[in-house]
Amino acid sequence: MQRLIKNIGWLLTGRGLNAVLSLVYLALATRTLGLDGFGHFAIIVALGQTVTGIANFQTWQFVVRWGSAPEGPGEATGFAIALDMISVVLGTVFAAVLVWSAQFWLPLPNELMWVAFGYCMVSLLSLRSTPTGLLRLRFKYALATAADAVQPIIRAIGAFLAFWFMPSVTGFILAWAASEIAIAAAYWVVASRQEKIDLSKISLRNIPRDHPDAWQFVVATNLSGSLLVAGKQMMILLVGAIGGETFAGGFRVASQLGQALVQLAQTVSKAIYPELVHAKDEAHDIARRIANIALVGGILAVGFALLFGRWGLETIAGADFGVVYWAMVILAISGAIEMVGASLESLLVSAGRAGTAFIVRAIPTLLAFLLLSTAMEWNGLKGAAFAVMGSSALSVIGFWIAILSLQQIRITIETSDNPKAPKPPST
């Protein structure tokens, strides 16, 4: 538990730096581009992150799961790199289709289409899940934090350069693209210094040969990761498709500030997963304690958003963005819910129930997409935020029910194996 808290501390340090610098480049982008221009910027970034979110396999989980074998992580790393290559190929095709079709459903000017496609390609070529897994496998969270720091620093510098020399959507997209390349390079350099990467072991056969459930795990974790990452970005795209670029920009700002907790939840989840894999017997207890801590942190963060959110919005983004205050508060509540559920989802995945975790998240996410138009007709951006919050709440409730079911099954099996063991309590 002590190591887990230390690792979370390192990850939160990186998130803290990212949060501070994100306020700087968010202020520069919103004040330079205005509501409409920032809306176009938000749509392009969402397109790139949607493509990578859907195409990218959660290869860091494979490295952690199969890389701890006595022979080392060589084959797990080779399997992960092979999947990364597939991600780039499939992602390129998906990016071409998505950007080409954008003219029919997104409020994106034609002159920005090639900018959007270029950003998608840079995002695909900057995948860093595999080196992230190598660092987490060895619990090198301090080094991961140092690599993480590269992105916000480059992004902030790029935002200043764009503000002075190229105050346009293209200028800020170039800054974001440069930061993606920089952080990917930093991760690969740091990881390769800690663990030799043997390119001769790149293969899609070795791991499935030794682990018959490998492809099932790959598909389940990819789908779950796609829902978590791309689902958020798809929400921005759909908000833009329904309400226009102004709504997309407003929702992006509200989401970035209000759902900072979702990023925190993802950070906690990434730190917990390796611990739960290594500590099977104590996994439930670890997840429970982290969930309790997250609940307290979530309540404090929502209170902070209520008290200081409007002032923060108008100070950072300008008075025009003050109208998204309540949407930001609702998304902050959603982030708090996700923060509590992060350890529960990690517990399911570590127990080999990645497919269950996917289904539990997929159904509420699909419902949110289906109800988005009705929610926005009812209450604009606040309606969209309520759709996100409802999806988060249903997902976390589902994780909790699934874990209770797993515990009941385990107790039943132990009782049947040992007739003298105490019977499970009747309910």
UniProtKB/TrEMBL annotation:
One GO CC term, this protein: plasma membrane
Regions that span the bilayer: 7-26, 38-57, 78-100, 112-129, 141-166, 172-191, 290-311, 323-342, 354-372, 384-406
Organism ancestry: Bacteria, Pseudomonadati, Pseudomonadota, Alphaproteobacteria, Sphingomonadales
Primary subcellular site in the record, as a coarse category: membrane
InterPro entries: Poly_Biosynth_Transport (IPR050833), Polysacc_synth (IPR002797)
UniProt-annotated location(s): Cell membrane
Protein name stated in the entry: Oligosaccharide flippase family protein
Domain of life: Bacteria
Keywords for the protein's UniProt record, in alphabetical order: Cell membrane, Membrane, Transmembrane, Transmembrane helix
Membrane topology category: Multi-pass membrane protein
